[in-house]
Give the backbone structure.
Amino acid sequence: MYYVNQEQISIRLAVIPALTDTMNMLQQNWTGSAIERLAQERALHIAIEVVTDVGSYLIDGFLMRDASSYEDIVEITAGEGVYPDGMKEVLLELVRLRRPLVQEYYEWQSDELHPLVKQLPQLLNDFKAAVEQYVASELV
C-alpha cells in the first residue's frame, strides 16, 4: 500500500495556473522592465520548485528509487511514466536553471525573455494533467 501525499501534490499543482498566466502575460507584453525581469525569474524559479516538489512526493509516495539531484527527479518520474517522454527534455532544461536562478542570480541574463517562458505554459498544464492522471490510475 502506498502513502502518497495527494494534498501536498495538489497544493503545488494548484500554483500552475498562476504561473502560466504570468508567463503568457510576459510573452505578450515583454519590454524588459525590471518588474518583468524579476517576474520572469520568479515564475521560472517557482516552476522548477513545483516540478521538483511534485516529483519528490511521487518518488517518496510510490517508493521509486531515491533521487540524487533535481535532474534525477525528472529522470526518475519520466522513467516511471508519470508524464509523456516528450516532456522530459524540457523539464530537464527547466530544472537546470535552478542553480543560475538561485545561486548565480548576479550573472543571470534577464534582459530578454527566456525561451522557456514560451514553452512552459502548455507544458506545465500538460504536466499537471499527467500527474493527476498518474496518481489517480496508480491509486485505484
Notes: The chain has one domain: 6-138. The chain has a mean pLDDT of 96. Residues 6-138 form a domain with the Four Helix Bundle (Hemerythrin (Met), subunit A) fold (CATH 1.20.120.580). The first helix runs from residue 6 to 13.
